[in-house]
Amino acid sequence: MARTHEITAMRSSGISVQRVALPLLVLSLFICLFTFFWNEALVPIFAHQAQTIFKTEVKRKQQQSLFGTVDIWIRGERSFINVNRFDTANNTLQGVTIFLLNRDFSLRGIVETPTARWTGRSWEAKEITSWSVSPDGKMVLEKSAALPPITETPEDLKLLARDAEEFTFFDLQKQIADMKAKGIDATSYDVDLQSKLALPLISPLMVLIAIPFALKRQMSGSMALSFASAMVIGFGYWVLSAFCVSLGHSGGLPPLLAAWLPNSIFAMIGLFFFTAEE
Asked: 277 by DSSP, 3-state: which?
């Protein structure tokens, strides 16, 4: 429309740029809503199926625990191991409880440790509490204890890890609440939760930024230049978004700021150019 001077004709008739752009803005909001519901209804199902195929058929890894990094159950040698959370970034198990069993599957002891860190060869824990079960069923506290061997390595547990995209918004919200109730740091999941709300808004943001550029005379005559500008704007958003999310996962930015800072910056830039275009 800019190349064929239709925009010029509309503006000369008293129609503002904002009114001309209104249908595009409304359409972008519909795309935003569609993207959110698409991510909620279909993406988690497809992502989970894809990861399941990759982990169990491609990697040939048998599922020995629940998929996820929270509330993991592992079947060991004459034992069951429960882990509150597996920190994939630091290769650390948090809230480890090992239930030791007899041959008849009766309980013979319990070993607990707040954290266990992977040393490269085995899991190592410093604060270990151990109880043994006496023949009369009483729990006896033992002063010194060693951590029973855990056969799963970090690579094994990472194969069973469930990515944030495999959760719906409300499932992820519930998992965060469960983690906080157990005293587990849920910062990275908080960032992912906010990102599920922030990312669909990319459609109206791109419209706000693109319209002023499309109306520039020096750009309206070159399709290649317009395409290159769109690629630069889109790539810039994803780089900034990935950078902020990475800072959020590491604790460098609060989750709310990490997810919404790219949107805020691009929204201010887009509103400035959009309102200035008269």
From this structure: coil
Q: For the segment 83-124, what is each residue's pLDDT rounded down to a tens digit?
A: 888 887 788 888 889 898 888 878 888 899 888 999 888 888
What does the H/E/C string look like for 67-119? CCCEEEEEEECCEEEEEEEEECCCCEEEEEEEEEECCCCCEEEEEEEEEEEEC
Q: Residue 172: count other Cβ atoms within 10 Å of its Cβ.
A: 20
> Whole-structure pTM over 0.85, yes or no?
no
In this predicted structure, what is the pLDDT of residue 67? 45
As a whole number of angstroms, the distance between CA 98 and CA 76 comes to 9
Residue 258 exposed, middle or buried by CB count within 10 Å (0-12, 13-18, 19+): buried
User: 74 in the Ramachandran plot: left (φ > 0), alpha (ψ -120 to 50) or beta?
Assistant: beta
- The Cα 220–Cα 213 span in angstroms is 8
DSSP string over 121-139: SSEE-SS-EEEEE-TTS-E
